[in-house]
Amino acid sequence: MPPISSPNLLPGVGHGRTPGCCSPVPPPHTLGLPWVPQGTRGPSLGPPGARHPLGTHGQVSPGHGIAPAPVAQPGTPPRVAPVLPAAVRYGRFDPEDQRSRHCPYLDTINKSVLDFDFEKLCSISLSHINVYACLVCGKYFQGRGLKSHAYIHSVQFSHHVFLNLHTLKFYCLPDNYEIIDSSLEDITYVLKPTFTKQQITNLDKQAKLSRAYDGTTYLPGIVGLNNIKANDYANAVLQALSNVPPLRNYFLEEDNYKNIKRPPGDIMFLLVQRFGELMRKLWNPRNFKAHVSPHEMLQAVVLCSKKNFQITKQGDGVDFLSWFLNALHSALGGTKKKKKTIVTDVFQGSMRIFTKKLPHPDLPAEEKAQLLQNAEYQETMVESTFMYLTLDLPTAPLYKDEKEQLIIPQVPLFSILAKFNGVTEKEYKTYKENFLKRFQLTKLPPYLIFCIKRFTKNNFFVEKNPTIVNFPITNVDLREYLSEEVQAVHTNTTYDLIANIVHDGKPSEGSYRIHVLHHGTGKWYELQDLQVTDILPQMITLSEAYIQRRGGDTATSSGAGTSPGL
């Protein structure tokens, strides 16, 4: 068969295009057109002298089995022109475009500008529907039709390779064909990291450094979080939660929660989805950069908390932790009493609270004694659950020492833990009444959170207590704080520190940082926004600890990992 000449190319295909992107017309019978023996009349495809859709004036190269279309005779009924398949009209003769595996623009992709941490919105229309990322400049655009923002961008700036952020498919614009190339898999993995069960099991055994695209090395899980403006309080809490093995493992595998049913219009499940995405990005061993921006996570926090916690305003780490754990538990379908979730399985313990009402201090002694005989003033006991334990610090000194410097007192951890021994009583005042309370632990969770109460609020200002808490890094035994009948049930009551959140500076102007234990290497690291440095464990005890997460032997024995806790 002689070679097909250029007039036989499809109209509009192959002219002004990249060489190799067009193909000759195949035999008509392969396109679903009727085959007519040579020398006979073929189907009429239009009026006399009309341009044949398969060539010039109906002429086809010899050997294709179609004769030139003769002029229609008077009285002959008109014939309907066959419709060309879409694959032919757009220059594709296979189910898969021949250009898909040979796109000439792959070398224009610039991985150094790709950042999938931000909200998936078109940079022009601000729509989140059908958004594509330009892999040359990193910007987001909507659609890929003729008048779409992505199409116009590709023509105006000659940026041709785009990624659909929802379907994870690659396209070449303005030619509008799908790109299929295995070399692009690292981009889709950065956009949506996935973990197998085996990879999740081995996370706490890995001590190998990963190398980012820019050449920097990092440990998965020990990466900085971008402080967008004043969200370091949330960053520290999210970093701490990401290093609790059972909670991390649950959210690394999306199948664990993606089928949870929520009421129509419920926005709280967005918190679960964003937290899972953040966990997978923090532990991604194939990141393009050695830090992560929690932009989408924090947008969900602002929305779900009804702006109680914001990106642009400093917040309290304990308040955020309390709200986040309860909101996460509720979004996963948990309830206060019956239905449990991964949050309660990991952090929830229980205690007995003994409460006794006190007479007004200004009453005469005889009247006080008489009131104490009433049932209203008798001690009552209730069972209550907790997500974290609040530890009260002794009052800070108001006077300076002989060197005109404020004395910074120190207190052992076990002194402030005495609040939960079931014997120590503390007075609590309300607007009208006073109560005497004591606490006794009845159940210890696998991972225990200590919140050291450093801030005291009144009508005028917030005061910070700078007292240093001397705490051991490992082997904190809480057996003596359990009731006697519970001690026999709890075989493991020892906890090791795995995360320590520190607040520095004034109450309203301070900053947060966190100390984290990397299980694979056994080393401690300090993270403050994007800065990650290693630190000696002896230095951790000198900080103004605000929140601690500790884990006990119960978590270790269940296979959750070594030294768990906050």
Automatic annotation (TrEMBL):
Which keywords belong to this entry?
Answer: Cell cycle, Cell division, Hydrolase, Isopeptide bond, Metal-binding, mRNA processing, mRNA splicing, Nucleus, Phosphoprotein, Spliceosome, Ubl conjugation, Ubl conjugation pathway, Zinc, Zinc-finger
Check the record and name the SUPFAM superfamilies matching this protein: Cysteine proteinases (SSF54001), RING/U-box (SSF57850)
Q: Does the keyword Cell inner membrane apply?
A: no
In residue numbers, the region (Disordered) covers 32-78
In this chain the USP domain maps to 223-553
Domain UBP-type as annotated: residue spans: 101-198
Q: Name one GO molecular function term.
A: zinc ion binding
Per the record, a Pfam family? zf-UBP
Does the keyword Phosphoprotein feature in the UniProt annotation? yes
> Which biological process terms from the Gene Ontology are attached to this UniProt entry?
cell division; protein deubiquitination; spliceosomal complex assembly
Q: List cellular component terms (GO).
A: spliceosomal complex
Family the entry assigns: Belongs to the peptidase C19 family.
Q: Which PANTHER family match?
A: U4_U6.U5 TRI-SNRNP-ASSOCIATED PROTEIN 2, UBIQUITIN CARBOXYL-TERMINAL HYDROLASE
Name this polypeptide is given: Ubiquitin carboxyl-terminal hydrolase 39
